[in-house]
Design a protein that fits this description.
146 residues; alpha/beta; 6 strands; isomerase; RbsD/FucU_mutarotase; Fucose isomerase
Length: 146
């Protein structure tokens, strides 16, 4: 155990977050995301039993978002014609706003299949037990500045 590190961040996840460099991306996937097939060429970390919001909050305590791009946080767009509600996105925006002074402006949306293509190129994918639909999020790492 370490002081000041959220307990939800496992040693494996902390190691990956530390290894990641500027512009590397990490996916926080919901329970329906095809994590294993998308993660064939990247690191897959299992965090079953945890939701995306609690992991997002913990990660952003130690993980800087990229300031060199407008949208370092991206959500999977709802497929046209799908009537699914996405209240979890509001939760994500509240969390992101606590850790990035640009607020909601850093959150974008990516079409479903374009999201899959980005996920395949991510440094890591975190598989969660999140039950909300369209709850997938990609974070792009920035630079630690003291």
């Amino acid at each position: 155990m370490l002081k000041g590190i959220p307990k939800i961040l496992s040693p494996e996840l902390l190691k990956v977050l530390c290894e990641m460099g500027h512009s590397d991306q990490i996916v926080l996937s919901d329970g329906n995301f095809p994590t294993e097939s998308m993660g064939k060429d990247c690191i897959v970390i299992r965090c079953d039993g945890h939701g995306v919001p609690e992991l997002l909050e913990a990660i952003l305590e130690v993980f800087p978002l990229d300031t060199y791009i407008e949208k370092p946080v991206n959500l999977m767009e709802v497929v046209p014609g799908d009537t699914v509600e996405t209240p979890i996105w509001d939760t994500y925006k509240e969390i992101v706003s606590k850790y990035d002074n640009r607020g909601n402006e850093v959150v974008g949306n990516i079409e479903r299949f374009a999201f899959y293509e980005k996920a395949k190129k991510a440094y890591a994918i975190v598989a969660t037990g999140e039950k909300a639909l369209y709850a997938n999020v990609i974070l792009q790492k920035g630079v630690v500045v003291d």
